[in-house]
Amino acid sequence: MTRLANPPNLDAALKQGLNGHGLTPEEALSLMEGGDLDALLQAASVVCDQSKGRTVTYSKKVFIPLTHLCRDYCGYCTFRADPEGGVPPYMTPEQVLAIAEAGRRAGCKEALFSLGDQPERIFPEAREFLRRRGFESTLDYLEAVTRLVLDKTGLLPHSNPGLMGAENLHRLKNSNVSLGLMIESASPRLLRSGGPHWKAPDKVPTLRLKTIEEAGRLKIAFTTGILMGIGETQQERLDALFAIRGLHEKYGHIQEVIIQPFRAKAGTRMARAPEPSIEDLQRTLAIARLIFGGEMNLQSPPNLASEDYPLLLRAGINDWGGISPVTQDFINPEAAWPQIPILAERTAAAGFVLRERLAIYPEFSSRPGFVDARVQSELQKLRCEDGYARKDS
Questions:
Q1: How many domains does one find in the chain?
Q2: CATH of the domain at 373
Q3: In a domain, 189, yes or no
Q4: How far apart are CA 263 and CA 271, in angstroms?
Q5: Residue 75 · residue 184 · CB < 8 Å
Q6: Cα distances (angstroms) measured from residue 338 to each of 4, 128, 200
Q7: N or C, which terminus of the chain has less Cβ within 10 Å?
Q8: Cβ pair 389, 357 in contact under 8 A
Q9: Which domain holds residue 239?
């Protein structure tokens, strides 16, 4: 590595990150607050290349928003909605299957289910829809429709339903190849009145970490990450990353860490809040790479970095996340995904090879106990010998 001008303590922190064993919280904070960005990017690239080589992955998915109802009122979200006359509270099984089948025909292999958190807790319309169909909760309904998609289309479900207890996680493992829950932030301060997580009871950090820990106990390949730029301090941002690392060191189940930048949206309480710069995103990604070392899969969505997304490859990421040729990004509808051929071209121009993965990463798809037998039978139809997606599936 070319030596760049840093105070001695920052050079020592950078060298510690380069050895691949991960930064300490003190080292990470010093680099967050004052490390030379070019040196950080170079170190993160070296660590990533040593473990991941020059392969960058993505998952070809179809996005299924099972319900927009949510009991949380986050200050930045346009996905959630309250009940509205004439608008069904949930997608029907027939609607879910129609989208999944369209995805299958387009070559998708992942069915990503996103939905609001526990809407039946506050909305009678949600309770009535579920009651008429014989379900007690949204998570019960999710289990049924993910099983339906798995059985009828062969797509591999990956669900992001919010908080989950051990029983729900266990049941969803029977029909999902992986699950996810963004911790977003480890700071309870953001729950205060007027904050981004004010009136969002499911964003309590300890509750979200408990879900991730329960998934570890159950050997579920899990995706998590942070939403950066929503008002957290640099220390709080690092606290979330180290909380994730601690759980992964204990259970070894986190397959991917996402660093997602906040994007201001019209009609929300945070519509005029400043967005993180590309340099801030690069710095956070590079430090995350040094915190987790080279083995962790690190992702940042390309559609949230606009045309600058190839710059994120310099920061040590090895995955672009899910890209859909069929459906929009319902969480960020204003930000279109790049077309896959263009994504491949721009990835290649940066010196990397784009390769399609499944909703479970190769290193987890063959680990004993991580995939339910029923899911495994469909997984093998889509999986190459090295764990990536088959081209002829």
A1: 1
A2: 3.20.20.70
A3: yes
A4: 9
A5: no
A6: 34, 39, 32
A7: N
A8: yes
A9: 47-59+162-382
d(CA 140, CA 3): 55
Q: What is the CA radius of gyration of the chain?
A: 20
The residue with tokens 């062969």 is 154
- pLDDT tens-place string over residues 188-211: 999 999 999 999 999 999 999 999
Nearest Cα neighbor of 158 from 167, 149, 166 is: 149
- Contact present, 260 and 300 (Cβ < 8 Å): yes
Residue 72 located in a structural domain:
no
Model-level pTM greater than 0.85? yes
User: How far does the chain reach from its first CA to its final CA, in angstroms?
Assistant: 42
Residue 324's CB is within 10 A of a number of other CB atoms, namely 20
Tokens, residue 12: 């020592």
Question: Distances from the Cα of 64 to the Cαs of 253, 327, 391, in angstroms?
Answer: 25, 8, 23
Partners of residue 61 on adjacent β-strands: 110
* Residue from 125, 123, 164 nearest 142 by CA: 164
Residue 71 DSSP symbol: S
The closest of 118, 112, 111 to 69, measured between CA atoms, is: 118
Model pLDDT for residues 32-63, shown as the tens digit of each residue: 998 899 999 999 999 999 999 999 999 999 99
Give the whole-angstrom CA distance, residue 387 versus residue 290.
Answer: 25
